[in-house]
Amino acid sequence: MLQKWITSIGLDIGTSTTKLIVSKLLIANQQNQFTLPGCQIIDRRVTYASSIYTTPMLNDVEIDVQRLTVLLEQEYKNAGISLDQVEAGAVIITGETARKQNAESIVHYLAEHAGDFVVATAGADLEGILAAKGSGAIERSAETNAVIANIDVGGGTANIALCQNGKVIETFTLHVGGRLIRLNSDGFVTYVSSHLTEFLKNNYLVLQEGEKATFEKLSSICQLLAEETVNYVKALNQNSSLLVSPHTRSSIPETIMVSGGVGAMMEKQKPKTVKEVAIHGDVGPLLAYHFQSIQVSQAAETTRATVIGAGMQNTEVSGSTVYIGSKRLPLKNIPIVEIPVQQEEKWNPQLFQERARASCMQASTIFSAEDPPAAIALSHFPYCSYKMLQELAKIISAEFIDCFKGAKCLVVLCEQDIAKALGQALAKQRKELEIICLDQIDFTHGDYIDLGLPVAGEAISVSVKTLAFSS
Questions:
Q1: Where are the beta strands (DSSP E) in 33-97?
Q2: SS3 helix, strand, coil % of the chain, rounded to 5?
Q3: What is the pTM of this model?
Q4: CA 461, CA 456: separation in Å to the nearest integer?
Q5: Residue 141: helix, strand or coil by DSSP?
Q6: Which sign, positive or negative, has the C-alpha torsion 359, 364, 367, 370?
Q7: What sign does the CA torsion over 226, 231, 233, 237 have?
Q8: The predicted structure's pLDDT at residue 9
Q9: CA distance 464 to 138
């Protein structure tokens, strides 16, 4: 069994705090006479965790990229690693920070200065998924077969992921966080997020900047925020003015756990005065108490849940029966275009060709003229005969060439162990195309994919993610 350790980082730039972890991932190529060869991560170890820093800002809307870069360089030095040693991981901008003016440009800048194969990403859905991985919610759902909800409450948002059988089945985000209301030790309010205005009005409450808030009013607001969050997670409320984007509930959790900076404060005693509430300049401690009072459990990992999910859990390994007819690896930020292979009872090449043509044409109008312009992800893939395989290869290559004129590299993703055979068939169809065909890729929760270098045999490291930024 071939094994290899790789170094992964996670850098989480949140509304309130920034932190970094370094971890080691053990990748093994496992095969025997009874199974197809396959690669998986069999061990994960955190080797370094940074201090938790206040996120550096130039002003209310601009992240200080220079100070972030200096911080990253110093933390790499403290961890005893260099850029060329980093083979996986994620730089993520989360919560309210993802809405800051220069978030998108910074996340790409940091990715280029973090290592050759580090994901650059921001987006509430992915943040919720990573937090659920890092908090232990996904693992617990696999062990119990129950639906587990993880609420990751930070400074600006509560990112919720519902997990079942070891997978995230639903995500959504609420404007709930410790720093949506800020105040000084005397109780004077210095900031109230505009996202709370409608919610407070609906509950006959008003809180304005400059006002001297009483403990009772702050407690009432935090209680309402905690109850609104938990009631929506339990599907007791079908809608909420705090939702970041429209959402329809579909699953009801049996267990709810809370992670994030607010989750970390749940074990502390209830603050009794405004001065105790404002110890961090916000209402985080009081919000944490009210989550605790409605009997949700604290997650196994809280403050570092998202960064651990990013650094340790975000990397996957492709199947080992892959086809790589290109020397372009590693490749970053390839848009994923999903095409269902079979939506009918029987394989119908004509209907598949229509779907492939429509998807590729739409992608050609959206994405830039990079090469490869997109990765074709084949979903709803049934048993595949030799004839079907040849027809698939012919249709995919023809529609790809027709829609992406001038492209020289075709990337195809499969969920099943068919990549080597399909890659060979594609290579025969179009000898001028460089073919990369990968299997055992779960592209359900992602819009983009990064492809790394081989890590065990022919298998390569893969990260599927979203690059959606909040407006």
A1: 35-49, 53-54, 86-93
A2: 35, 30, 35
A3: 0.62
A4: 9
A5: helix
A6: positive
A7: negative
A8: 78
A9: 17
Cis, bond preceding 372 (omega within 30 deg of 0): yes
pLDDT at 353: 94
Using only the alpha carbons of the chain, give its radius of gyration: 24
Q: Which residue has the tokens 């089945």?
A: 169
Q: For residue 6, how many C-alpha atoms fall within 13 Å in the half-sphere facing its CB? A: 31
Beta strands 17-32 and 53-54 are antiparallel
- Whole-angstrom distance, CA of residue 278 vs CA of residue 215: 10
Beta pairing partners, 182: 191, 282
| Paired strand residues for 414 | 378
What are the 10-residue block averages of pLDDT along the chain, 471 residues in total? 74 79 74 48 79 84 82 89 75 64 66 56 67 86 91 89 87 92 93 92 92 95 96 92 87 92 89 93 95 88 63 51 81 84 88 92 74 88 86 94 89 84 90 87 70 71 56 33
CA dist., res. 429 & res. 396, Å (int): 10
Question: Closest by alpha carbon to 225, among 271, 129, 148, 156?
Answer: 156
Length of the chain counted residue by residue: 471
Model pLDDT, residue 456: 59
The C-alpha atoms of residue 336 and residue 446 are separated, in whole angstroms, by 8
pLDDT of residue 33: 44
Pairing of strands 181-183, 189-192: antiparallel
Do 412 and 422 touch, CB atoms closer than 8 A? yes
For residues 155 and 186, give the distance between their C-alpha atoms in angstroms, rounded to a whole number. 21
Q: Which of 180, 128, 127 is nearest to 156 (CA)?
A: 180
Computed over every residue of the chain, the mean pLDDT equals 81
Contact 228, 121 (CB under 8 A): no
User: Residue type at 469?
Assistant: F
33 exposed, middle or buried (CB, 10 Å; 0-12, 13-18, 19+)? exposed
Choose among 16, 196, 215, 10: nearest CA to 114. 10
Q: Report the alpha-carbon angle 100-449-160, nearest 5.
A: 55
* Torsional sign, CA 336, 136, 56, 61: positive
Q: Determine contact, residues 11/18, Cβ cutoff 8 Å.
A: yes
